[in-house]
Amino acid sequence: MKVLEAHNITKLFPGVVALDSVDVAFEPGEIHCIIGENGAGKSTLIKCLTGVYQPEEGEVLINGEDAIKNKALFDKIAYVPQEIDLFGYMSVAENLFLPYEKSGIKGIVNQKELEKKAVPVLERFKIPVEPDALVKDISVSSQQLLQIARACVHEEYEVLMLDEPTTSLTTSDTEILFDIVRTIKKQNKAIIFISHKLEEIFSLGDVITVFRNGKMVAGDVISNVNIPWVIKQMTGKELDQDQVFCSEKVSEKVLLEVSNLTGEKFSDISFTLKKGEILGFSGLVGAGRSELMQAIFGYLPVYSGTVKLDGEAWKLGDTNYSVNHGFIYLPEERKKQGILPVLSIRENISVSTLDTLKSGFSISRRKEEELAREVIDTYDVKTPDTDKAIQFLSGGNQQKVIIGRAMKCNPKVLVFDEPTKGIDVGTKAEIYRLMKELAEEKGIGIILISSEMDEVKKCSNRIIALYEGKQAGEYDAKADKDTLLSAIIGVNS
C-alpha cells in the first residue's frame, strides 16, 4: 500500500500554474528522488504534501485517508527544509526535541534529562557536538545533521522528506547522512529525496520523478535511466556535460595581489588574480575560503598581511570602501545575506545604486523601474513583473538578480561564493556562461569558491586549494581530481 499519494494536484498563483494535474505516489521502504529545474514545481508540491498549501484541485492521501480534510494526518510526514531552521541561542538538546509535546516531554523541562536523552541520538546521527552546546556555536554541517535528527526523533513519522539535505554538508557528512537514510529505509519508512546533485540521486535512489514547468514529465526506476536521460527530461534538451567555461581572454595584468594574509580562520595566504581570469578556490567546508574573501571584502578582521588592487594599497575592514572601489562579494547564503526577501525585485536591484536614482528628495520610481527592467532583460531573469517579491523567485533567478545588481556597481573583482548552491543543472550552465562572459567581455577578475570539484575544474583557469585555513597548493585547471582531492583533505600537507 502506498503511504503517501497525490492525485490530480493543481496549484495556482497569480499568473502562474505552479502545479498542473500532478499524480505521484510514495511507497514504504523506498527512496523516491524528485528532480527538476528551479521553478519546476518541486517546492510547491512539497508544501501541498505537508499541508502548507491547499491545492485548488486534487487530493492528498496518507495511508488512503484524505489529509486535506484531516490535517492531523500530516503529522505522519517528517520534513527537513533546505535552509537551516534552528534556534541559534538554544542548546542542541533543546532544538533536537522541539516541539516538546511531540517528544513526549510534558511539564517543566529537566535540562539534564533532556541532555541525557539527546546523547544516543547525537551518536546515532554521528553529530560531533555536546548536547548543551548552543546551536549558533556549532558548524553548519552539524546544524544540518541536527535538523535531520530532529525530524526523525518523533517515531510516529512514516515519510521522511529531505529537501536538498547535503547543500551544507562536507563529503564525509554526506556519507554519514546516506548511511542514516539507508537505515531508515530498512525501517520501512518512505523517503522523499530532493536534490539537484545527479550523482547523489544515482548513488542513493530507488525511483526518480522528474518535474518540468509544473508538470510531472517522467518517472522510472533509477536503474533503468542515466544522467543524460534525466537532464533531457528536466530541460527538454540535451546539455553537453563536458563543456568547459574557463576564460579564454586572461590578461597578463595582475588585478588583485594578496600577500601573507592572516585572519581568524586562515593564515599566511598569498595569491594573485589576473584581469579576465576565473580563479577557483577549492576546499572542504570550514577550510577558510569564505572567511578569506570576507576579510578582503572588509566584513571580517585581518590580523596581518597586505592586499593590492590595481597596484594600489587596499583599505581593509571597510565594506563600503570595497564596494565603492570595485571589490564585490556575492555570499553563499543567498537567502540570508544576498537578498532582501520581502522587498520586490525592483527594490533589490536599485538598493545598491540609490544615489543615481534620486529625483529631488526621493527615489524616482521611473528610473528604478528602468534599471530593474535593464537587469531583468540583460540577465534573463524569469519574472512576470518587477514588483514581485524576490523571495518567490527560483534560486537561479535570485542569483541572476544579485549578479545584475553587482554589475551596476562597476566591479573589478567579483567573488562568487558557492554560486550554484541549490540550483538545477540547466541554470548552473547559465551561471557558468555568465561568469565566463563577465571575465572575457568586461575584463572582470572572478574568484569562484565551490565545494563541487567538477564546478571548479569546469570554470577555473587556475585552482587554489585550502586545507584547515592554509594554502595546500596551486594547480592548473587540468589537474586530475585525485590530485586536488589529496590537497583539500590534507594528504599533501
Description:
- With 493 residues, the chain is α/β, with parallel strands linked by helices.
- 32% of the residues lie in helices and 25% in strands.
- It contains 16 helices and 22 strands.
- It has helices spanning 42-49, 92-97, 111-124, 140-153, 171-186, 198-204, 227-235, 289-297, 319-324, 334-338, 345-350, 365-378, 395-407, 425-442, 453-459, 481-488; strands spanning 4-13, 16-26, 31-36, 57-62, 65-66, 77-80, 159-163, 190-194, 207-212, 215-221, 254-263, 269-274, 278-282, 302-309, 312-313, 327-330, 358-359, 362-363, 413-417, 445-449, 462-467, 470-476.
- Strands 6-7-8-3-9-10 form a six-stranded mixed β-sheet, with helices on one face. Strands 16-19-20-13-21-22 form a six-stranded mixed β-sheet, with helices on both faces.
- Strand 1 and strand 2 form a beta hairpin.
- The protein is globular and about 70 Å long.
- The relative contact order is 0.11.
- The model has no long low-confidence stretch (mean pLDDT 90).
